[in-house]
Specification:
Elements (H helix, E strand, L loop, with lengths): L10 E2 L7 E2 L16 E2 L4 E2 L1 H14 L13 H19 L6 H4 L8 E4 L6 E2 L4 H4 L5 E4 L9 H4 L7 H22 L1 H22 L10 H17 L5 H17 L5 H19 L6 H27 L1
Antiparallel strand pairs: 1-2, 3-4, 5-6, 5-7
Helix pairs in contact: 2-6, 6-7, 6-8, 7-8, 7-10, 7-11, 8-9, 8-10, 10-11
Length: 311
Amino acid sequence: MTQPQPQPVAYGCYRHPDRPTYIGCQRCGRPICGDCMISAAVGFQCPECVSAGAKQTRQHELPYGGTRVANTRVTTITLIGINVAVWVLYLLTGGSASRILANLLLLPSGQCTLTDQPGAYYPGVDTATCATIGSTAWVPGVADGAWWQLLTSAFSHLDTVHILMNMVSLWFLGPPLEAALGRVRFLAVYLVSALAGSTLVMWLSDPSTQTLGASGAIFGLLGALLVMVYKVRGDYRTVLTWLAINLVYTFGFGSGISWQGHVGGLIGGFVMAAIIVYAPRKDRARTQLLGSIGFVVLLLVLVAVRVAQLS
């Protein structure tokens, strides 16, 4: 014996009561007719729920992509923590004589250093010859395969005042940029700016000169901030003034400062910010990703060409 199947009940659309319908909104459950239903990932939704969902999405999405976060200092604090950790490691492993830090600094071409005289080295000596000289140790450079130095040097500091100034600058610049760009994009600007600074050091510095410090990345943040303020047509005079002061100090009063790292970082920040903020809304994330990858590849190719020359 078969039981009669219950028939679905038709309800009037909540916006058009005279139109019976068997379909309800997947979010609120209200009955909706063919004119009111909007296709969703699963089933259909009413116009109000679609509008509310779109508004909620916009509230959590940043102007240039990425997700809004409650604490916009997390990435900045993490970067500061890494810099401080490397600084402590430097102090605990012998200070200026630290062999660990010697491998983290940016050195275009390797050096035969004197173990009993920190900072001294034999110029023009190769690895094989260095091994035959007493009280020496070979410190590899990027041309010897120490490619990690392109980034690790941006987290290394020797001077207390140097790390203090850089971390204070990062503390003030980082959170506003992290709030506007999101964590991933902000971190990308920081790291690629550091890489751009190292790239210019590879080309324009003496191959035997050691370079270190987060200044290149900091200049990159200044460059990114300038591009963003210009994009929204804001008052960028303050940023220009701050940048001008730093450039004057770099070229005019800063003895031993790597202007190559500063200028390279600034260029890196300009390019990365332009890729992010001027990417078209359609396929924005994909455009930003491909543009960033393309710029990083260009920098690595430039480094590879320079390594070939030094080798």
